[in-house]
Amino acid sequence: MSARKDIFARLKTTLDRVHNPTVRYSRADRYIQKGGSHLIPERGRADGAARTALFVSEAEYAAADVRRLARLDDVPDVVKGILNEAKIGAVKIAPDDRLQAMDWSGIEVAFGRGVGSDHAGLSFAYGGVSETGTLVMTSSAQSPTTLNFLPDVHIVVVREETIAANYEEVWNLLRQDAKPDTPRLPRTVNWITGPSRTADIEQTLLLGAHGPRKLIILLIDAEIS
After folding, report:
1. Is 56's pLDDT higher than 90?
2. For 116-144, what is the mean pLDDT?
3. Are 217 and 67 a contacting pair, CB within 8 Å?
4. How far from 22 is each of 6, 27, 194, CA to CA, in Å?
5. In terms of CB atoms within 10 Å, which end of the chain has fewer, N or C?
6. What is the DSSP string of the chain?
7. Torsion of CA 30, 31, 37, 43, to 10 degrees
C-alpha cells in the first residue's frame, strides 16, 4: 500500500470508530446535494451585458483568445481560419450532437476523445464563470476530458446565455440539470482559465506546460444565435 493510501485508510478507520459510517456518508451526501450559498463578492454579481463583458476581459487577461460569433453555424468557418493560422491540418472534435450536426466540409475532422498526436481540439463548454473568465467543462461521452488537456490548441464553444456570474451559480445549475437516472454531478468538472502555464522554473512563464499552449474561446451571442 502506498503512503497516500495508508494515510487515508487510517483516517477512515479513525472516523468510523467515532462516527457511524452509514450516518456519516448520509450526512455528506445530503450536504453535497443541498449545496447552499456563501458570501459572493461584488465582481461575482454581474448581470446582463456586464456579465459577458467581465467574462471576456477576464478570459483575455488570462491569455485566452476570445472571438465573438453571431451564430452557432459560424463555428466551422472560424475553426477553418484558426487551423490555417496555426498551420494545423486537422482537428479532433468532441462527439457532441451540436458539433457533429455542423457542416465540416473542407476541413479534416475526426470525432472522439483526445490523444497525444492531436494538434487541435474542439469542445463545447457546459458554461462559463464571468468573475474569472473561466470555462466549465463537464465530462461525458459527448465531452471527453482528454480534449481539455492533450491538443496543443484547444478551441471551445460557449454560449453567452450559459455564462454564470460566479462559481456557486454553476454548481447549483449542475445539480438542477442532473437526471434521476444519473449521478447527481458529472464524474469530472474541469475549470479552465486561460491556456496551460507554469512559472516553476526560475519564475519564467511557460505556456503549454501541462496542457494546451493556446486557448481560443468561440463565444456565441445570445441575442441572435
Report:
1. yes
2. 97
3. yes
4. 22, 9, 41
5. N
6. --HHHHHHHHHHHHHHHHS-HHHHHHHHHHHHHH----PPPGGGG--HHHHHHHHHHHHHHTT-EEEEES-GGGHHHHHHHHHHHHT--EEEE---HHHHTS--TTSEEEES---TT-SEEEEE-SEEETTTTEEEEE-BTTB-GGGGTSSSEEEEEEEGGGEESSHHHHHHHHHHH--TTS-SS-S-EEEE-SS-EE-TTTT--EETSSS-SEEEEEEE-TTT-
7. -120
d(CA 93, CA 20): 47
Max distance between CA atoms of the chain, in angstroms, equals: 64
Whether this model's pTM surpasses 0.85: no
Average pLDDT, the chain: 87
C-alpha cell at 165: 456570474
pLDDT at 36: 62
